[in-house]
Amino acid sequence: MAYEIGLSTPTVPNRGFTLWIWSVVLVIMAGFFVLGRLVIRFHNRRIGADDWVILASLIASVLLTVTECSAVHYGYGKRLKDIALNDRAKALKWFYGAQIVYKVVITVNKISFLCLYLRIFIQPVFRRVCYGGIAFLSAWGLAYILVTIFQCTPVNAYWDKTIINKTCVDSKAQWLSYAVINIVCDVAILTLPVYPVSQLHLARGKKIALAVMFGLGTFVCITSIIRTTTLAESANNKRKDPTSGPIPATIWSVIEANVGIICACLPVYHQPLKWCLPRLFGSQHSAHPSTSRSRGRGQKTPGSSRSLQDRKDMAWRELHGSGGIYSNNVSTQGFEMCDVESRKTEMNEIVRMTDVSVSYQDDQRSDASSRPIRGRAED
Where is the Rhodopsin domain (predicted)? Predict the structure, then answer.
């Protein structure tokens, strides 16, 4: 039997090719985004739990593509009457597996977002909320995976239509209840970082840029909502034709799963975006372009090539030597940066003073308490 990708014939309509092409193209795109994310993290030597979680999600998405394409190969997308008798059970069995794997992908996607938040934000309350969210998502995902596995009694009654004495749950109720909770979770995850981002000591433009990076999860919400609008009709059509009726909802399930992976990877691409859009994502120096333009021709401000991080490190060493721990996390309990520019009229040159406030923890102290230290570096 030749491999089928769901192409229609003049006598047999087939909706499977649309599902096949969406599944293959999107999983390849998601794979490139995850690969790029891992390359960036390995290059920076900052691989973390969130990266492994999104890799697990990609592996599950590949498995989802395999199950969907295998279902199409055996006739999923055709009308049931147009499928050979020995292929009907195979098509439905692969689609049954795809429903289970889909829920795994969606659950792991959402957990990867929360793991990324845990990596970025340090507020204790926010972190407790994230841990609680991970616990809820794990329980919710497991519950619906079990419901999907045991949606028919006996289990093989889902794909074996010759079984007469069987009991199956209402697909419409199951799909819609899952979709509603899914959307609520998407909105909650999307809005979680709003408060901690608003507390960061950054310029307004950079706050907006950071909010946009996290707000890319909006696309996941949109695909979830669109998928939900197709569920009722697909569930009704499934009763009439279990191999052709659910195709629209199946396609949107594939889109939602892979778009979720892509959106979870985008915040990691902050550094490439910083190179492309330096004014929006750049360092503190880019926030004051007028300063560099105000220098006279042929004049060079002492230390102008030194970065803001160099100035912070210099102030740290002058105040504390090499001991202690320097925290580079930006938060209400971290450090605040403000540039104070003054003009030395006698020397006719510009001097930039950077006031750096850091949180210092001395390893030599038995109580390991923290005390605020302020230093000033001069260019």
Answer: 37-274
- CATH of the domain spanning 16-279: 1.20.1070
Helices and strands (DSSP H and E) totals, the chain: 13, 6
CB-CB contact of 172 with 231 (8 Å): yes
pLDDT at 300 > cutoff 90:
no
Residue 249 and residue 245: Cα distance in Å, rounded? 9
For residue range 209-241, list pLDDT tens digits in order: 666 666 677 888 888 898 888 888 888 888 888
Contact 363, 324 (CB under 8 A): yes
**Which helix (DSSP H) or strand (DSSP E) does residue 374 occupy?**
strand 370-378
Domain ranges of the chain: 16-279, 289-378
Dig out the tokens for 308 from the structure: 């803001």
What are residue 348's phi and psi, to 5 degrees? 55, 45
Euclidean distance between CA atoms 27 and 65, whole angstroms: 7
